[in-house]
Amino acid sequence: xxxxxxxxxxxxxxxxxxxxxxxxxxxxxxxxxxxxxxxxxxxxxxxxxxxxxxxxxxxxxxxxxxxxxxxxxxxxxxxxxxxxxxxxxxxxxxxxxxxxxxxxxxxxxxxxxxxxxxxxxxxxxxxxxxxxxxxxxxxxxxxxxxxxxxxxxxxxxxxxxxxxxxxxxxxxxxxxxxxxxxxxxxxxxxxxxxxxxxxxxxxxxxxxxxxxxxxxxxxxxxxxxxxxxxxxxxxxxxxxxxxxxxxxxxxxxxxxxxxxxxxxxxxxxxxxxxxxxxxx
Length: 280
What we know:
By secondary structure, the chain is mainly α. It contains 11 helices and 2 strands. Strand 1 (138-141) and strand 2 (146-149) form a beta hairpin. It starts with a helix and ends with a helix. The model has no long low-confidence stretch (mean pLDDT 78).
């Protein structure tokens, strides 16, 4: 889990650095992806900090609280950011046929930041309000391998975390179904330029929410199975695997970002120029 978190964190840092260097963050809808990568970085920092517990027999104190808080904040902010990008794709694709759906980029971005980070921060802070005496809200879970919302607060886990992620996954599924439906209809459009523009939007942006949906499937399936069969124990190996797959969210988004923006080619070209100038 720590290794996967470090991998995602490193990939997120590299993408943020390249995005700033190549000025991708200055482009309208693409800044939303930039915010998603930041959320992934927070999530990966929380995940990678699990290495601290490996050398300790007991996990407690401020370090545990910080990891639990960051994990909650990172998971939910990543989900919200994916929903925002999905909404952006939906509006941009449908706006070609329905101009009323055309969004005000500046206003949409402000609302997106408030929802992504403000909403996630609020949900993470509510835990401290719900905390009971001598029962920390953020405590060791998962056989003591990491810290998150304590087993004492199962209702809060559902209301502050899982219900939001499940709703976002359902929202993304419905949104992309409509996007696909409109895209299929657009092939018969009298204006071929609109079809090309739709394809460009889908190619550049649409993949990121799909990544979130896919990496959450194992963990979501585990939770649904656990709720449906409360008396049955799930093998620890499967739990660990599901969490590791979910933690790959940042790494997968970083790879997708690099491919869709040709960052790898640009970095290679710059390195080649530096190498040639050094050899001269």
